[in-house]
Specification:
Structural class: mainly alpha
Number of strands: 5
Distance between the termini: 168 Å
Order of helices and strands: EEHEEEHHHHHHHHHHH
Strand order of the largest sheet: 1-2-3
Largest sheet: 3 strands, antiparallel
Strand content: 5-15%
């Protein structure tokens, strides 16, 4: 006799309902051992029905495979025979459409070829990418309009250098760009003979004779860093001759006559070996004109 909680006494050999074997097989996954038990007494009051748990659990979250299928018991002489069948193996079907596929490259039209910039074209021509070198080279070759387009691309530190200012003046004069010339001359002065000479010519075209003389005097005393000294002196003396003639025309006196004659004789002396030079010919004409004109007598 064996005591069972809430079930009274069970004697070996007694018949026990087959559901017990089913529960054993479910939790052990092994064929249940056939036993016969005898129930002497069964107090069902306050006891859950046989084969059901005393408490209700939540839905299982186990990942175990499904429980084995149990065949119906075969009847016999007080015995219950249970056969356990393993669940059929699950077949996995591969969906070809679900398999990853390589993305085909899109047929893209190549972008149009980019035209080289002005700096790139000049760099290929001169073999350097230095904007300052490109700018001065274009001025030296007489490509004044192109040079003026390069100037805004100079770094600020280069654009303010005396060389850049002088070469911009030359480019503006060569391109006949009076607006750029005036802007360059009036923006910032540099201590250079060529700059003062250009500013003297600027005021001479405006008819401002006194300012012209002042800048000619500055030019004569300043160094000339970017022009041949001989060329500079020739231009300087020619400018002084024009300014002296203009003063004589405004105020024809013996003093202004003498000043004009002296200025033009200096030009002829400098170019005595080049009588065909336009400056020499101009000096010869002015000397004759001034000498013939009557002057006011005191």
């Amino acid at each position: 006799m064996v005591a069972a909680a809430g079930l009274g006494y069970v004697q070996y050999g007694e018949k026990l309902p087959g559901i017990y074997d089913s529960l054993v097989a479910r939790f052990t996954k092994e064929p249940a051992v056939t036993t016969t038990t005898r129930v002497e007494s069964l107090d069902t009051e306050g006891v859950a029905p046989l084969g059901e748990p005393d408490a209700v659990e939540d839905f299982p979250v186990s990942t175990e495979p499904p429980s084995p299928v149990i065949d119906q018991p075969e009847s016999g002489h007080g015995h219950t025979r249970t056969q356990v069948k393993e669940p059929p193996a699950q077949k996995t079907t591969v969906n070809p459409s679900a398999s990853p596929q390589r993305k085909r490259p899109e047929n893209r039209t190549p972008p149009p070829s980019r035209e080289p910039s002005l700096i790139e074209m000049l760099a290929a021509r001169y073999g350097t990418s230095d904007p300052m070198e490109l700018f001065s080279s274009e001025v030296a070759r007489g490509n004044f309009s192109t040079a003026l387009k390069v100037y805004p691309k100079l770094p600020l530190s280069d654009a303010l250098k005396p060389k850049a200012i002088i070469y911009r003046i030359r480019a503006a004069k060569g391109a006949r760009d009076s607006k750029t010339l005036a802007e360059t001359l009036n923006r910032r002065e540099i201590h250079d003979g060529e700059f003062y000479l250009e500013k003297a010519q600027f005021f001479f075209r405006k008819g401002q004779t006194q300012k012209t003389r002042n800048y000619l005097d500055k030019a004569a005393q300043a160094p000339t860093n970017f022009m041949d000294p001989m060329v500079f002196r020739r231009k300087l003396l020619y400018g002084k001759g024009l300014c002296a003639s203009a003063q004589f025309n405004t105020s024809p006196t013996e003093e202004t006559r003498r000043e004009a004659m002296t200025a033009w004789y200096e030009v002829k002396s400098l170019l005595r070996t080049s009588p065909e030079h336009p400056y020499f010919q101009k000096a010869d004409q002015e000397i004759r004109r001034v000498n013939k004109r009557e002057v006011a007598r005191k």
